[in-house]
Design a protein that fits this description.
Layout (H helix, E strand, L loop, with lengths): L13 E2 L10 H13 L9 H21 L5 E5 L2 H19 L7 E5 L5 H12 L5 E5 L9 H7 L3 E7 L11 H11 L4 E5 L18 E5 L10 E5 L25 H15 L9 H18 L3 E3 L10 E6 L4 H10 L2 E2 L1 E2 L11 H5 L4 H5 L2 E4 L6 H20 L17 E7 L2 E8 L4 E5 L6 H11 L2 E6 L10 H8 L20 E3 L5 E7 L2 E7 L8 E6 L11 E7 L2 E2 L2 E3 L8 H14 L5 E4 L11 H7 L1 H8 L4 H12 L12 E3 L7 E2 L5 H7 L4 E4 L3 H6 L4 E2 L2 E5 L5 H7 L8 E5 L4 H12 L4 E4 L10
Parallel strand pairs: 1-11, 3-4, 3-5, 5-6, 16-17, 22-25, 27-32, 28-30, 28-31, 31-32
Antiparallel strand pairs: 2-8, 7-8, 9-10, 10-13, 12-13, 14-15, 15-16, 18-19, 19-20, 20-21, 21-22, 23-24, 24-26, 29-30
Helix pairs in contact: 1-7, 2-7, 3-4, 5-6, 8-12, 13-14, 15-18, 16-17
Length: 770
């Protein structure tokens, strides 16, 4: 296990995720440490040590008032913004309930782009306090500005209205004076909460001049430690303690105060209030920083789109998308280059968009590809210069990998030669490239990856021999047609069938004596084999080295089986044109013409194991094993398979393309702090960096713990398995990636494919200080 002191920032780290949290300023850290070590008294104690602690508490409270412009009202220290939001909403709802709710259907309004803490808190306490209100979002326009007319129409029915001063994802700020006018004109008594977390230190606040009832703040968004925040409550606004107990904070918030956190906050606010100190930069300087970043991003990403209007956004926040690149592509690239940003979607195989950008009406691709880049008001010119230089260097790696269009020829170190698997939302797109002939085939393209393929083709000038689908459901998006329209000049054929198979006269004979159409790609061929069952039109595409006019089973390297055979399961047959009897015979036919060791490449990957074989499936899938051994008749198979399908949901939800069993196994771990010792004791081990080539190239460090890295991208792990069959019982491999997730998947895939000596590094490069 790593010690706490082992966990440190990477060298040359550039932190551009300040809207999530900020580093702690040295002055704040010093104040907190001083208070912990020397001013450790309890502010509630009456002796001198306690009086000193009380002084720190109250002078900080006075400083808060000055900085936020609140001479009146209550200032209560909290654990952070979420507690402040809870307290404000409970106070408002309880007060409304006590005075009597006159509206027949009271509204609890919140801005559609609010932090999730707000609507979720409204829903929770609406239910717990039995308010019976309707929690409803206030719409925003394409800039993220709240719909004033909506507020005017519904304010009278509202018992609480929650808005925010500035948005955490886009930096869009609201006109609080205009909001106040709309709210108070139509409902002078409604309780109004404004989330001011992102505003502090970035825009001028004067809470005395506006009738906000509650305003939560958080210290860790402005260079103080996590765990300290505050809540402003307007004089006369009702208050219900969220935490009861010993009566600290004048009975408003019980529990011994976090004095070190308060002292750190004092240090930050003192710097902010000091006109002679230049730690916090002016709005003009911050806008210059943003302009420099904008110009750099526009220069390196010609297809960039900014997702917000810079004229009504904080100068410290940028939110952008790049056509053809997922947020994960950019996140992984920047992380590899030691640049820290955040995405508007989850970085996982299950892709989610940004609800903020959705509310602003942005296209799906912008929402799902969004990147947030945020710096803090204490950022220096040197920080911005280093960031711009690092961004330029990182994006050069994207050009070499052809993830963005560039006049860059494929090179031997990072070029693709063979099979790649691209995963989007657990759907698999397979791209086979023969580098020597500059030919490629695409199979089962998802719409989200169409632009990625187009960029690759245009960047390298590949001849597209075919764009294929293994099957097609009713009302399915015609992704193959989209691609052909994007790259017509690169298509080798202009006539093809419904699944994209070109009209070619070439044929080969398979092991069962059948003659099937064939398409050459470099020295190999890909053939089309009907395997109906999952759908009536289901086919498999077999790729391998022909022997004259035949394609022997042992020469078939890959079989693209769509949803017919999945990893740990079989495709369902109860939808549309599915037929369980046909599936039975298709499985048998596939087994007759391919070897048990051929890699089966499905169109869904629910377990992050990439590919399978008939041999592996027989060992884990009794239904498949029964079909291949002949122990199950067609009628018996139909009964069992139909029973399995009936348990699946009739929707597009996860796992609905077939039932499967989990087949992954635990892998051997090597802790990051043990890696050097492990490599020393295993001198022949190959350290496999499974990040993508652009990540590998983004930060030029080809060694870890003194051992040279070998880049085998996770998208090419199936190709690697195929190439290393002869060595899998001899060589040792230890897999590593950014965080340990991909290396775990790679190691499990290698282990499942019979590699005897496989390890991975949990935590990956994130926990290695090199």
């Amino acid at each position: 296990m790593l010690s706490l002191t082992d966990i440190q920032p990477q060298k040359n780290e550039i932190y551009l995720d300040n809207n999530a949290t900020t580093p702690v300023l040295p002055q704040a850290a010093e104040a907190a440490m001083h208070t912990m070590q020397l001013c450790y008294g309890n502010p509630s104690s009456s002796h001198i040590t306690g009086i000193k602690a009380k002084y720190i508490l109250e002078t900080t409270r006075s400083l808060v008032r000055k900085v936020i412009g609140a001479s009146a009202g209550e200032i209560t220290f909290t654990s952070g913004a979420t507690e402040g939001i809870q307290t404000a909403i409970i106070s408002a709802l309880q007060a409304a309930k006590e005075r009597g709710i006159e509206q027949k259907k009271p509204l609890l309004l919140y801005g559609a782009t609010e932090h999730k803490a707000v609507p979720e808190t409204l829903k929770h306490w609406n239910r717990m306090l039995d308010i019976g209100g309707e929690v409803r979002a206030i719409p925003v326009d394409e800039r993220g500005i709240l719909d004033i007319e909506f507020i005017r129409q519904h304010a009278a029915e509202a018992i609480v209205i929650c808005t925010m001063a500035a948005n955490n994802e886009t930096g869009v700020y609201q006109d609080l004076a205009l909001l106040e006018q709309a709210i108070r004109h139509y409902n002078a008594d409604v309780f109004w909460m404004v989330d001011c977390v992102q505003a502090l230190g970035k825009i001028q606040l004067s809470l005395d001049d506006i009738s906000i009832d509650y305003a939560p703040f958080s210290g860790h968004k402005l260079y103080a430690p996590k765990g300290i925040g505050l809540l402003y409550v307007r004089a006369g606004a009702p208050y219900t303690p969220f935490i009861a107990g010993g009566g600290q904070e004048s009975g408003l918030r019980s529990g011994t105060e976090n004095l070190p956190g308060i002292a750190a906050l004092h240090a930050v606010l003192s710097l902010l209030d000091d006109e002679n100190d230049d730690t916090f930069k002016s709005s003009k300087i911050l806008e210059q920083y943003r302009s420099q970043l904008v110009e750099t991003l526009k220069d390196v990403f010609p297809d960039i789109v900014f997702n917000h209007d810079l004229s009504c956004s904080l100068p410290t926040t940028l939110n952008f998308s790049v056509k053809g690149l997922s947020s994960k592509d950019i996140m992984d690239l920047f992380d590899a280059a030691h640049i820290r940003v955040s995405s508007g979607s989850a970085c996982s195989s299950k892709v989610n968009g940004s609800f903020v950008l959705d509310a602003m009406g942005k296209p799906k691709w912008q929402s799902e590809s969004a990147i947030r880049m945020s710096f803090g008001p204490a950022t220096s010119q040197q920080d911005i210069d280093q960031a711009c230089q690092a961004i330029r260097q990182a994006v050069e790696a994207l050009k070499h990998s052809c993830l963005i269009l560039a006049d860059t020829e494929d090179n031997s170190e990072f070029g693709v030669d063979g099979l790649q698997q691209w995963i989007y939302d657990q759907k698999c797109t397979w791209c086979y490239v023969d580098k020597a002939s500059k030919e490629c085939v695409l199979i089962d393209a998802t719409p989200e990856l169409v632009n990625k393929f187009e960029t690759l083709v245009r960047c390298q000038g590949y001849s597209v021999k075919a764009v294929l689908e293994t099957h097609r459901h009713q009302q399915q998006v015609l992704n193959t047609d989209m691609i052909r329209e994007l790259v017509p000049e690169f298509m080798a054929y202009d006539q093809f069938d419904a699944l994209g198979w070109p009209e070619t006269q070439s044929q080969v004979m398979l092991a069962d004596g059948s003659i099937v159409p064939a398409l050459a790609i470099g020295p190999k061929v890909i053939v089309k084999l009907p395997i109906p069952g999952h759908t009536l039109n289901s086919v498999a595409y077999l790729l391998g080295q022909p022997a004259g006019d035949k394609l022997p089973p042992e020469n078939i390297e890959f079989a693209f089986t769509g949803d017919t055979i999945q990893i740990g399961g079989l495709g369902r047959t109860d939808l549309e044109s599915g037929n369980v009897g046909q599936l039975y015979h298709s499985i048998q036919r596939l087994a007759r013409v391919t070897a048990e060791s051929a890699l089966l490449c499905p169109s869904h990957d629910y377990q992050a194991l990439f590919s399978t074989t008939l041999a592996m499936e027989k060992s884990t899938n009794s239904l498949l094993a029964g079909v291949l051994s002949g122990e199950l008749s067609e009628a018996e198979f139909a009964l069992q398979k139909t029973a399995l399908d009936q348990k699946l949901p009739m929707s597009d939800e996860l796992y609905t393309c077939g039932a499967f069993v989990s087949v992954g196994k635990a892998i051997h771990n090597v802790a990051p702090n043990e890696l050097a010792k492990f490599i020393e004791s295993h001198p022949n081990v190959t350290v496999v960096d499974v990040r993508e080539p652009h990540e590998f190239e983004a930060f030029p460090n080809a060694y870890v713990a003194g051992k040279r890295l070998v880049n085998i991208p996770l998208t090419q792990i199936t190709q690697f398995v195929n190439q290393q069959r002869a060595q899998k019982n001899i060589d040792e491999f230890i897999c590593i990636c950014r965080s340990g997730n991909r290396s775990d998947a790679a190691a499990k895939t290698l282990q499942r494919n019979g590699f005897a000596n496989v390890y991975h590094v949990p935590g990956g490069f994130a926990l290695i200080n090199e």
